[in-house]
Amino acid sequence: MTTSKLAGYYDAPEGVDVRGRYDEEFAKILTRDALEFVARLQRQFRRQIRHAMESRREAQRRYDAGGLPGFDPATRFIRESDWVCAPVPPPIANRMVEITGPVERKMVINALNSGAKVFMADFEDALSPNWENLMKGQVNLRDAVNGTISFEDRERKRVYKLNETTAKLFVRPRGWHLKEGHILIDGEPAVGCLVDFGLFFFHNCAAYRANQGQGFGPFFYLPKMEHSREARIWNNVFNRAEESASIPAGSIRATVLIETLPAAFQMNEILYELRSHSAGLNCGRWDYIFSYVKTLRAHPDRLLPDRVSVGMWQSMMRSYSHLLIFTCHRRGVHALGGMAAQIPIRGDPAAHAKAIEAVRSDKLREVRAGHDGTWAAHPGLIGEIGTVFEEGLAGRENLIGVVRREDAAGICEEDLLERPRGRRTIEGLRLNTRVGIQYMAAWLTGTGSVPLYNLMEDAATAEISRVQNWQWIRYKALLDAEGVELALMPELFARVVEEEMGRIEREVGMEKFRRGMFKEACSIFVRQCMAAELDDFLTLDAYNQIVIHHSSAGSSL
Ligand SMILES: CC(=O)SCCNC(=O)CCNC(=O)[C@H](O)C(C)(C)COP(=O)(O)OP(=O)(O)OC[C@H]1O[C@@H](n2cnc3c(N)ncnc32)[C@H](O)[C@@H]1OP(=O)(O)O
Ligand SMILES: O=CC(=O)O
Ligand SMILES: [Mg+2]
């Protein structure tokens, strides 16, 4: 963490101290009333959040002692009884294609104009949560909701404005585990997701409901939950926000990402907690793979094969998505598919066609399985994905009430835990290392989603690289090196890191390598891969490097 001086200061209420850089535009977001709203949420829910995080650690201790996640006998009545969530709001009945992306100004406009039904504006996997990104993101979303957002690219002499018809906005706040180090509430760092949610809700609730939500909204995506008690906190936050804005209960809707292994056993319970606020579930496949390794880190019989081999075709991944579709449709809500990592490739038509075909077949699998919609990483994919889903939905808005997937009712604990099969190779180790370091370097310098080797990489995909290296090092995995088996010892990893750093330097060029933060990224990544105890998240340690405190009037630094 570093500190520096600034000119203006934010008008913060009692007990709130804003230590991020002062900016007149940010001050219109960080008003006294908005900060008071965030502080009230934090004060009301901090005990429950602390308890939920301690419960995560307790569950992990059980898995570390040899236990496995499973369905909770205590909530069998929720899984077995008949209940449904609140009816789907008409403006979001059709969610065939959803584009996702960070809350960067030009990308927000491009995403809203992309032709997708929904735009998920991301404060999470796709965003490096530095102060500038977060606050500019809030400014951008406010302008988007008001319909006034524009952006001028002077170099390219291009002005960006919203089209007549735009995607419906969903906002993804950070996960429960992340703090906002630039805002202190009663001396403690604010809870990151309450800052993201609170500021967005406070400034946009009324305009969103009038301009986009047809009386509903705002809409959210909720990431990385591990248990229904965390969904209960969100439900209470929504109740509190609705009361304070004097809007009807059930106006806010949220789609929960099922992207942790423990949450796969809690789909019904999560929907139940949020039943008056639910907008379904989504298969967050990348974090899910990461979570499989993290949750089962003490189980040497659960080593994953190379990252490229852990796709939706693996039995465990298929079981998880089928159970999600069955659960959502039984409860009357959308079952969203996930993100294919391929993106359009310029200047190589054959590679481009291959990438598009990979996305097309992933989407075909999803719609045939019964998903109501899916995610797109890039505007260039919307047309192809839209065609697949339009054909699959055959004129319907969604498949709720159409595809029941009763066959998935019998998916059991073993199905969800089955280890993915495939080879572990030295090439896999090299790729993880190259990708992990380059992603971390981008993140440290303010970019949270990047194209690497023609694939979309973000915090979730980078996590797989990190924990997979950790797991292989921890258990001295045997790796295939062109037909020879090598045990992954620390010396071998050190040699791979050195060689891959050399390759990164050659690929990005000496100048960019020198100016970038590749060395810092390498040292964070290597420390985490070699740690005796697996760090919970890649971004927790690295976050300290992007917190910059400025002194404010009345604060003592
Ligand atoms: C695991 C998960 O959580 S998935 C969800 C989180 N991850 C994401 O949301 C990733 C979203 N995608 C992206 O960030 C980007 O597509 C990347 C980083 C993968 C690739 O970005 P780039 O290399 O800049 O793409 P490219 O140069 O082809 O972009 C072409 C145009 O499309 C725009 N664009 C690309 N992706 C997006 C997007 N997701 N949303 C809006 N606009 C986009 C670019 O801004 C650019 O616009 P311009 O022509 O007006 O200048
Ligand atoms: O957030 C999505 C994921 O795949 O992770
Ligand atoms: Mg994720």
From TrEMBL:
Residues 168-418 form the Malate synthase TIM barrel domain. Keywords: Glyoxylate bypass, Glyoxysome, Peroxisome, Transferase, Tricarboxylic acid cycle. Residues 424-546 form the Malate synthase C-terminal domain. It comes from Dendrobium nobile. Its main location: other. PANTHER family: MALATE SYNTHASE (PTHR42902), MALATE SYNTHASE 1-RELATED (PTHR42902:SF1). InterPro entries: Malate_synth_C_sf, Malate_synth_sf, Malate_synthA, Malate_synthase_TIM, MS_C, MS_N, MS_N_TIM-barrel_dom. It is an enzyme of class 2 (transferase). This is malate synthase. The active site is at 172 (proton acceptor), 458 (proton donor). It is found in: Glyoxysome. Pathway: Carbohydrate metabolism; glyoxylate cycle; (S)-malate from isocitrate: step 2/2. Its EC number is 2.3.3.9. Residues 14-76 form the Malate synthase N-terminal domain. NCBIfam families: malate_syn_A. Belongs to the malate synthase family.
